[in-house]
Amino acid sequence: MKTPNRHILRWQIAIQEYRVNMTIVHKDGIIHEIKDGLSRWPLPNNIGNPNYVPEEASPQIPVEGMSVTDLNTTFFAEVGNIYN
User: Fold this and answer.
1) Where on the tree of life does the source sit, at the highest rank (predicted)?
2) Which domain holds residue 6?
C-alpha cells in the first residue's frame, strides 16, 4: 500500500472514527463526476502553503488627545446623604 498524500491523509484523520461502518474507495478526479473546490479540505494560511497570503496587521490608530473628567464633589455628597 502506498503512502497517502496529504489531502487523503487529512480526510482519513477526519473520518477515522466512522471507519468501522464504512469502506473508503478512492476515485480519480477524472472519473468523479461531482468534483468541485468546496469538497476539498482547505490548507491553513501559513508559510508552508504555496498560496500563502499574509494577513494584514490591523491598522494602528494613534491617540491624539485624552480628556479625564472627575465627577463633581457635590454629586458624591448627595449620594452619600441618600445612604446615610
Assistant:
1) Eukaryota
2) 1-47
